């Protein structure tokens, strides 16, 4: 039975409302059949995504150019970040959401912002069938909701009323879940996602001061003297500690030997 509960147990109570089973269920069956057989006019739905890695002359300037590009095309920058690594090179990343109709044109404009495209990956996921199935399920669920609303206004006993309310609550929960899923798919297919990674071209680091040969030799000699002093210091410590440990150990060993010889006599 389309109502989702035992018809045999409910016929008697619904009969008390004085409308026949055909009258009770006819509206629901007709609405559901109409929803199932209705031709879908769903357009093609494809989730488009791209990842592109650019070598650029200036990461901050390119970040600004990406934001301007997204705004000009009716999109936006969802996330953006800039960071510097130990190599002193400035890196960045930006995630753009762009109208899907401008996807290819946007990729072309992004490539033009870099000195070189280091890598690029484009993917497309066709969710047309999934979207069409979801729309059909929504139509069925809404038709079911209307049928329960009609029964709700004509239920006679308290038991009938509570049963219909429970079924109505269940179908509305399903509708909310499906509407949320539909909204997500619409967002993912209406706007393409492009993740742009940026890295600057490494530049030669200029010396911070003038090179002086004599001063460099002096610094090297000073370092050598300090190193020699540390070696001598270490050797002295080893000798002193060695004597300090070996002398008591030798005395103890000599004492044990003397006791052993004395006991053998």
UniProtKB/TrEMBL annotation:
InterPro entries in the record: DUF4349
Coiled-coil zones: 124-181
Keywords linked to the UniProt accession: Coiled coil, Membrane, Transmembrane, Transmembrane helix
Domain spans labelled DUF4349: 44-252
Transmembrane spans: 235-257
Statement: the UniProt record of this protein carries the keyword Coiled coil: yes
Protein name: DUF4349 domain-containing protein
Organism of origin: Candidatus Uhrbacteria bacterium GW2011_GWC2_53_7
